[in-house]
Design brief:
Layout: H1 24-29, H2 46-53, E1 64-70, E2 73-78, H3 81-89, E3 93-95, E4 98-100
Antiparallel strand pairs: 1-2, 3-4
Length: about 130
């Protein structure tokens, strides 16, 4: 098995926590000097890399717990209040091409009796000018 070199910028030397955050780009591009055939080498122009990352710029990366409460409803508890606010305020959110309806929890919620009274929709009218 190949060992990391002592001057490897991604190796903290003891298998512990690294001293600073390293971006995905830095991790991917760091192997330019390394001749280890087990590590993939990716060479991209900055514009291509930035363009491929663009769809993920607004992705939510958060720590949370999720509980299936039945009837297609889930309760999500966030560890960070800022992440919770981002989910409630921002959006719309999609998972596998399905829009999620997000709302705050209320005490008397019963999943078998719950109904969705309003939803956001996107309607496309073919050949309708966008300036209409």
């Amino acid at each position: 098995m190949a060992q990391a070199q002592k001057n490897d910028p991604l190796d903290d030397g003891g298998g512990g926590v690294s001293k600073g955050k390293v971006s995905f780009k830095d991790m991917t591009m760091a192997n330019k000097q390394d001749n280890n055939p087990l590590k993939p080498k990716v060479y991209l122009e900055d514009s291509i890399f930035e363009g491929s990352c663009a769809p993920w710029q607004d992705a939510l990366v958060a720590s949370f717990e999720i509980l299936d409460i039945g009837n297609g409803y889930f309760m999500v508890k966030f560890d960070n209040e800022d992440d919770q606010n981002k989910v409630i305020v921002d959006g719309p959110w999609m998972i596998f091409d399905h829009y999620l309806t997000v709302r705050t929890w209320f005490v008397d919620f019963i999943s078998l009796q719950a109904t969705i009274v309003k939803t956001m929709v996107w309607i496309q009218f073919p050949s309708l000018n966008l300036l209409y």
